[in-house]
C-alpha cells in the first residue's frame, strides 16, 4: 500500500455492446411503461365493450355494468396472482408457452405458442385502431383517416423498438404517468360532480332486442374481459428486467393489477350513476371525460393523451413477441434467425415480422376496432387458461408447502377464463372469431412442421453424436479462377498456396491471341502453380469452370474454389464492378459439393 492506495488486480474487461448491461435493463417503473400500456389502456375499450353488449336489452340494463366489472376485477386479481407465480417458476420468460411446454406437453405448448402469437399481433392492431377512434372522438374530421393514423403509428413504433425495449420504455414513461393521472382524474372529478358537466356526441336510439338474462350477462362479461389483455406481457418478458428480475417483474405485475382494477371500477361506477349509453362519433371514455372535465381544453388534451397512449400500447407486443419468437426458435419451432440479436440486444427479425403482420391485419379490417376485438380476446383466453392449468399441474406434481391454496387460485382462474372464452367464441363466431379458429391450428401445424424439419436435419447431420475421424487419405486441391496476371492474381495464388496441398489456376478465353499472351505472361511470372486454360468458343465463363470443377471432383479429392473479388472502398463504385465472381459462386454452390470461398481484394478508391 502506498499513499493510501491499495494494489488492485488488473483483469481484462470486455466492452459492452450498445444496450447491454444492467443499466440498460428495465426497472419496475420502466417495465410498467414498456410492458403494461396494453392492459392499462384497455380501459378505453373494455368498459365500452360491456356497454355495447348490454344496451341490446335497453339502457336500463346498463346498471349491470358495475357488477360485471367487479367480476372482471376479481378475475384480474386472480390472474395477477397467477402470473406472479409464473414469473417465479419461469424466470426466463415465455409466460403461457413456457408453462405449457414444461407441464402440459408438446400439443399444449404448440397451442399456447399459436394463441400468443395471434394475441400479440392483435394487440398491436387493436391498440392502434382504438387510438384512431379516440382521436376521431376529439376531431371527427379525422374519422375517415383511421387506417392512415394506424399505419403511421405502427411505423414509428417499429423504428423505436428496433433501438431496443429499454429506450422505448424511457420514451413511454411520461405518457404513461400522464394517462394514469388523467383517467384517475376523470374518476375522482366525476364522482365529486353531481351530474355530467357536458354531453358530447350525437344521440342514438337503442330498441330492446332481448331481455337482460343470464346469457346476456355472460356475453357482456366475456366482452369486457378484453380489458384484461396484456396482463401476461410482463411474465413473457422477465429477462428484460434488472436484477433481481423476478422481484422487479412481480412488483410490476402487482402495480399493473392495482391500477387497472381501480380504473375499471371507477369508470363502471360513473357509467352506472350517469346512465352513460353509446352515442355517435364518440367513445364511452370520451363521454366520461366530458362529464368530468367539460368540453373545453381539458377534454381535448385528455383525448389526445388517450390517443397517444393507445398508439403506444402496441409497444407491449414489441416487448413480448420477439422474446417469445426467440424461445420458439430455440425450441426449433421457428426459423433460427428469430433467435438472432443485432448489435443492440434486439430481436430485429421478430420486430419486423410483428410489424408486417399487424400492418396486413389493419389493412384487411380497415382498422375497425369492433371487428378486431372478437379475434383479440379469444387468443388471450387460450393463453390464460393454459398458463393456469399448467401451474395447477406444476403444484400437484411438486407439492410444495401451500400447494393446494395455489392450485385452487390457478384452477379458479382457469375455469373463469375458459367460460369467458367459450362464451365469446360462440357469440362472436360469425362476427370474425372464426378467423382465430382457423389461424391457431394453422400456426400449430407450421410450428410442428418446422420442428420436424430441424429434427430431421439434426439426425442427418449427426448432431449429438461423435463422428468418425476425418478422412486424410487424399490431398486437397485449390482451384483459382483468373483472367489476367496482376496483383489480384498474386493475392489469390498466395492465399491458395496457404490453404491447400495443390493449387491450379484456371482461365477461360475465347480468343487464341489472348490465350497465348496469358500463357507467356504466366511463364515470365512463374509462380510455381500450374495454369490450365479452357477454350470457350461461345464466350461462356461460368459453365466451363463448373465443368472443370466437376471433373476434378470425380476422384473424391477435397476441392476448394477460391474466387478473387475486387471490392472498391466506396459503395457507390460497386455497380462499376462485374458480378461474375458472385454468379460463379452461386452456380458452384447449386451444382457441386465443393468448398466455395470469396477472397476480397480491397481497393483504395
UniProtKB/TrEMBL annotation:
GO MF: transmembrane transporter activity
Alphabetical keyword list: Membrane, Transmembrane, Transmembrane helix
Transmembrane segments: 50-77, 110-132, 138-160, 172-192, 212-234, 254-271, 297-325, 346-365, 371-395, 407-426, 432-450
Entry's localization field: Membrane
Pfam family, one: AA_permease_2
Gene Ontology cellular component annotations, sorted alphabetically: membrane
Membrane topology field: Multi-pass membrane protein
InterPro entries recorded: AA/rel_permease1 (IPR002293), APC_K+_Transporter (IPR053153)
Signal peptide span: none
Classification via Gene3D superfamilies: Amino acid/polyamine transporter I
Name listed for the protein in its UniProt record: Amino acid permease
